[in-house]
Amino acid sequence: MRTMSAMRRLVFAPAATLLLPAYVAACFHYVPIDVPPLPKAQTEVRVTLASPMDISMGEFTLNDVTRIEGIVTEVNGDTLGLVARWLHPRAGNRYDAMFGSYDIPVTNIEQLEAWRLSGRRTAILLGATAAGVAVFFDLIRRVVSGDRPGDIPPPEASILVPR
After folding, report:
1. pTM beyond cutoff 0.85
2. What tens digit of pLDDT does each residue of 25-57 get?
3. Are residues 111 and 89 both part of a single domain?
4. 108 and 122 share one domain
5. Which helix (H) or strand (E) holds 101?
6. Counting beta carbons within 10 angstroms of the beta carbon of residue 45, is it exposed (0 to 12), middle (13 to 18) or buried (19 or more)?
7. Do residues 54 and 62 make contact, with C-beta atoms less than 8 angstroms apart?
8. What is the CB neighbour count within 10 angstroms for residue 74?
């Protein structure tokens, strides 16, 4: 019989590795924030622009960018400095911004959203995970003890038939 540490290494570690991205993705989401005040530096934000911008990306220009996702680097009275991760044009797919730095005029910000932890989503995910772990351990207990899922003892006969 394998020891519990071997089981942790062989079963639980890969399962935890596979579930971690789903856990993190479900617990965080963008939440609208009020402007002013502008968010502090190092805050992850999504900026929806009031009017689309053309953004130079080296050899080409991305036209009609309506939304930028990134991290706030600098806050001045009239501009918001971002290191961008994603650029969303009006039409088409998002583009990798390759961590380019952009200064967005505050007057061109239609909506500002911050990346926040969701208590409700986290509670739901933790509850579902706990239920899954309980079922998993119950199945392991049944296999180790020799029970098979679905084994039902035969009912007692209520009528005796003479032979």
Report:
1. no
2. 667 778 888 777 888 888 899 999 999 999 888
3. yes
4. no
5. strand 101-105
6. buried
7. yes
8. 13
Ramachandran quadrant class, 92 (left: phi over 0; alpha: psi -120 to 50; beta: rest): left
d(C-alpha 121, C-alpha 99), whole Å: 29
Q: Which CB contacts under 8 angstroms, 24+ apart, belong to 4-12?
A: none
In a domain, 162, yes or no: no
The answer to whether residues 33 and 105 belong to one domain is yes
pLDDT tier at 5, thresholds 50, 70, 90: low
User: One-letter amino acid identity for 45?
Assistant: V
Please report, to the nearest 10 degrees, the dihedral formed by the alpha carbons of residues 42, 44, 49, 54 taken in order.
80
Residues 113 and 33 in one domain: yes
What's the token pair of residue 43? 């805050």
Q: Note whether residue 13 is domain-resident.
A: yes
Range of the domain at 129: 4-26+118-143
Of 92, 89, 77, 80, which is closest to residue 41 (Cα–Cα)?
80
pLDDT tens for each residue of 50-63? 999 998 888 888 88
Supply the DSSP symbol for 155.
P
Same domain for 132 and 83: no
Same domain, yes or no: 97 and 19: no
Task: State whether 38 and 88 are in the same domain.
Answer: yes
Q: Quick one: tokens of 2?
A: 């394998």
Token pair recorded at residue 59: 């050899």
